[in-house]
Design a protein that fits this description.
This protein is an alpha+beta fold. Helices cover 34% and strands 26% of the residues. The chain has three domains: 103 residues, PAS domain (Beta-Lactamase), CATH 3.30.450.20; 118 residues, PAS domain (Beta-Lactamase); 129 residues, PAS domain (Beta-Lactamase, 2-Layer Sandwich).
Length: 394
């Protein structure tokens, strides 16, 4: 295919242009809508297709690369990223390696293609998977574990060993789960495997090596990275909430002990009326949300909550003030900080015991923005990894 794209001064003959085109590597040039402006002869021979058949959205759509995936490749390239992916040729099913790059100056998209060496390709995929995974795995404050569906531990970070007081001898994470909590999320894990849910968060008790009970908030999701490790894996992010539980335990016992925990706790503590009006905020509110404690007095919690989370917080307040137990002990919601940014908090609430003669609802929470960011990075890493293996042969 020779087009006006090859408008080179001094080269006008058709044969000269065809000779030049044959020397080019397999390359296709698209406009910003994915329509072909130029396709080299080597590119068309590699794809065994005609120029009118290789527009980006038409040719690279298939059962395993739906519209959403192709659009994701294109948009990432438009944002300046060099997007690499594998594709099985429609005629021969041979794999080709593709590299998609956008020139913002020329407003043109360039697609380079070459035949894929299977062994080299698998090595590249595994190396890229390891790089993407380790970028989020070595987190200093969150314990992270990768669990095979049969329960064996694939890998974990140092923070998990610190949480459980172990060295390197963990084979099954479930061995450390409190006996009463071993089965509480079996159904949820099955829903993950069935594709009914994307993730879930649940409170569990672990027994550390020294015998102490450690409460954790476990966020569990499924990684579909079978090309890298041989099967699906559960990614589990564990937050230590033992201090949170101590505050609630103290709340039930005595007002004096409750005050000691609240004033010295790194967790945020708020007392509200049954309607959600704030009548007390602990000193941790300044570190968590940036407000002075007096700034929040008389405000309603709903004034600080993200609009998308209002229904959930309203329902939780109603149930807490009524003394009704929720199916899950806490909720995750976004709070507006003093700087205007949204901060993710995990909060729990309950009505004060009548013996304390304190009216209203006690709410305890802590910042989970880092965990939510890590979850998003983990999902993004999985998507990037899956884009590498999508349509790869073998």
């Amino acid at each position: 295919m020779i087009s006006t794209f090859w408008d080179i001064p001094g080269i006008r003959s058709k044969k000269s242009l065809e000779f030049l085109a044959r020397l080019l590597d397999p390359i296709c040039v698209y406009d910003d809508q994915g329509e072909v402006i130029y396709a080299s002869q080597a590119f068309l021979e590699l794809l065994q297709a005609e120029a009118e058949e290789v527009s980006f959205y038409d040719y690279f759509l298939s059962e395993s690369t739906p519209q959403s995936v192709v659009t994701t490749f294109w948009n990432r390239a438009l944002q300046g990223e060099t997007v690499q992916f594998l594709f099985n040729l429609k005629n021969t099913r041979e794999a080709i390696e593709c590299s998609l790059q956008f020139s913002s100056d020329a407003k043109l998209m360039f697609l380079l293609a070459k035949k894929s060496n299977q062994d080299t390709c698998i090595h590249k995929i595994k190396a890229e998977y390891e790089r993407l995974f380790m970028s989020v795995f070595n987190h200093p404050s969150l314990a992270i574990a990768l669990i095979h569906p049969d329960g064996t531990l694939a890998r974990c970070n140092q923070r998990l060993h610190e949480l459980l007081g172990t060295d390197r001898e963990i084979n099954h994470l479930e061995d450390f789960v409190h006996p009463e909590d071993k089965l509480i999320d079996v159904n949820l894990r099955q829903k993950l495997l069935d594709g009914d849910i994307e993730s879930y968060t649940i409170e569990k008790r672990f027994i550390a090596k020294n015998g102490e009970v450690v409460w954790v908030n476990a966020s569990v999701s499924l990684l579909n990275t079978s090309c890298a490790n041989g099967h699906q894996s559960f990614a589990i992010l564990l937050e230590d909430i033992t201090e949170n539980k101590k505050i609630y335990s103290a709340l039930i016992r005595t007002e004096g002990k409750w005050k000691t925990f609240v004033l010295n706790s790194s967790n945020l503590f708020i007392q509200t009326t049954n309607s959600g009006q704030i009548i007390y905020a602990s000193p941790a509110v300044e570190r968590t949300l940036g407000y002075e404690t007096d700034e929040l007095l008389d405000l309603y919690i709903s004034e600080l909550i993200h609009p998308h989370d209002l229904n959930e917080i309203d329902l939780a307040l109603y149930l807490w003030s009524s003394g009704i137990r929720l199916n899950k002990p806490g909720i995750e919601c976004r709070w507006r900080s003093r700087s205007g940014k949204w901060v993710y908090l995990y909060i729990q609430g309950q009505r004060f015991p009548l013996a304390l003669e304190i009216d209203g609802v006690a709410i305890c929470g802590y910042n989970i923005s880092e965990r939510k960011r890590l979850e998003a990075e983990l999902r993004a890493s999985e998507e990037k990894f899956r884009s590498l293996v999508l349509n790869s042969s073998g």
